[in-house]
Write a structure and sequence with these properties.
The strands form 8 sheets. A 5-stranded parallel sheet has the order 5-2-1-9-22. A 5-stranded parallel sheet has the order 12-19-13-14-15. By secondary structure, it is of the alpha/beta class. The protein has 11 helices and 26 strands. It has helices at residues 14-21, 23-28, 47-51, 64-70, 129-132, 134-139, 157-167, 190-202, 244-247, 289-308, 344-359, and strands spanning 5-10, 31-37, 40-42, 61-63, 74-77, 80-84, 89-92, 97-99, 102-105, 110-111, 118-119, 124-125, 148-153, 172-178, 206-208, 213-216, 220-223, 228-230, 233-236, 240-241, 257-259, 271-273, 278-280, 323-326, 332-336, 339-343. The chain folds into 3 domains: 5-109 and 242-308, FAD/NAD(P)-binding domain (3-Layer(bba) Sandwich), CATH 3.50.50; 121-239, FAD/NAD(P)-binding domain (3-Layer(bba) Sandwich), CATH 3.50.50; 321-363, no CATH class. It binds flavin-adenine dinucleotide. Residues 10-15, 36-38, 41, 44-45, 47-48, 79-80, 106-108, 126-127, 158, 243, 245, 275-277, 287-290, 292 line the site of flavin-adenine dinucleotide.
Length: 363
């Protein structure tokens, strides 16, 4: 029997949810597991639909406290403020600290603010998802005598989902999608991007592309050429970035905790990181949930094998993953490599995949 080791899990992102579900295996391997994370996990696959009011917030929630309890894991509800590799401690946001022999971080990402852009506090960022859900509350209070006027800054996957959903709402007067690139959907197959642009135009989304935003205020957006467009609400969807915990030295780097293919920190074998907060050194990975999901089993196996002194498994990212954009109005765009399909059946497929994944963590 290997010596008992204290394993502290920081955050309950996708990979750590997998560890929680398989915590008895970690106990068998000789770990005493403690999790520090908020009570609830919000699933991003449902985030745009929830924020736009199409789905109930519970549709994308996992009760982390119940999952930990049911699998014998001690759960401290809260956030981690610091991970110290020299003292081998984590400090929580209420000032408590815990010692670890092995620590793993899976704390997600934050909304990226592009260099040189000023963003007012009232602007709603796409992450953390609890912030994005504020949009739902704001949409409940339309301005007197007219519908909402919303700006969505950034036409990546989350900006497109949000703009499409908002434009499908009957109480929205105008959705303005502002994109720095030359057109919407450059990351999609060419004809899929054209179909998407047509759908957005049909729903009345006004698009400004090739536009550098310099300031986003609570009531308007300003472009580099001085043009100002007003709005009641703005959503910042200009990408995702590593959170402060993952960028702070000595463990963090600009793109997050630097990890090798084994998900171990570049300089510390006892520190692991997965998902959006990790900077996967073998190759840059997009910040999408699928990597966190697929890293879960690798992380679990890595923690087990280190107790046996066996070789650590490596994470090998899949080259092409299926992604499905929920566009509201009962339709979605499914894409895998050059293959794509826009229509109701894509949404049915998305709901089936999402429900099945969530069900694994709710029983
Ligand atoms: C609107 C929107 C839609 C998206 N849709 C999709 C999609 O359809 N498919 C897809 O693959 N990707 C999608 N993404 C990207 C996806 O959200 C991320 O890639 C994914 O959530 C990252 O997973 P993760 O496990 O790294 O972290 P997360 O899922 O973000 O989980 C991290 C957890 O850590 C907790 N946490 C944060 N800080 C701390 C701390 N200091 N201490 C303790 N706990 C902490 C958080 O509360 C959170 O529960 C979307 C993103 C957005 C914004």
């Amino acid at each position: 029997m290997p010596a008992e080791r204290r394993l502290v899990l920081v955050g309950a992102g996708h990979a750590h949810l997998h560890l929680l579900r398989h915590a008895p295996r970690l106990a068998t391997a000789g770990y005493r597991v403690t999790l520090v994370a908020p009570r609830w996990f919000d699933y991003s696959g449902s985030a745009a639909a929830i924020a736009a009011g199409d789905l109930d917030p519970d549709a994308g929630r996992i009760d982390v406290a119940a999952l930990a309890r049911d699998h014998g894991v001690e759960h401290r509800i809260g956030l981690v403020a610091d991970v110290d590799p020299a003292a081998r401690t984590v400090t929580t946001d209420d000032g408590a600290w815990l010692e670890w022999d092995v620590v793993s971080c899976n704390v997600g990402s934050v909304a990226a603010v592009p260099t040189g852009v000023e963003v007012a506090e009232e602007v709603i960022g796409v992450k953390p998802l609890a912030d994005l859900h504020r949009l739902r509350e704001r949409l409940r209070q339309p301005p007197p005598g007219r519908g909402h006027q919303v700006s969505v800054i950034g036409a990546g996957p989350s900006g497109i989902e949000l703009a499409a959903h908002l434009a499908a709402r009957p109480d929205t007067d105008r959705v303005h999608l502002v994109e720095a690139g030359p057109r919407v959907g450059d990351f999609l197959p060419r004809r899929a991007a054209a179909r998407l642009a047509a759908l957005l135009a049909d729903r009345g989304v006004s698009l400004t592309s090739g536009a550098a935003v310099t300031r986003v205020d609570g009531d308007g957006v300003v472009l580099a050429d001085g043009t100002r467009t007003s709005h009641d609400l703005a959503v910042l969807a200009t990408g995702l970035a590593a959170p402060p915990l993952a960028t702070r030295p000595p463990l963090g780097g600009d793109a997050g905790f630097p990890v090798r293919a084994t998900l171990q920190h570049r300089d510390h074998d006892d520190v692991y990181a997965a998902g959006d907060c990790a900077d996967f050194l073998p190759q840059p990975l997009p910040r999408i949930g699928v990597h966190g999901v697929r890293q879960g089993p690798v992380l679990l196996a890595a923690l087990e094998t280190r107790q046996r002194g066996a070789a650590a498994p490596a994470y090998r990212p899949q080259q092409r993953a299926l992604s499905i954009l929920d566009l509201g109005g009962g339709t979605a765009l499914a894409v895998r490599g050059r293959w794509w399909w826009l229509g109701r059946s894509s949404l049915v497929l998305k709901h089936r995949i999402d429900r099945s994944w969530l069900a694994d963590y709710r029983d």
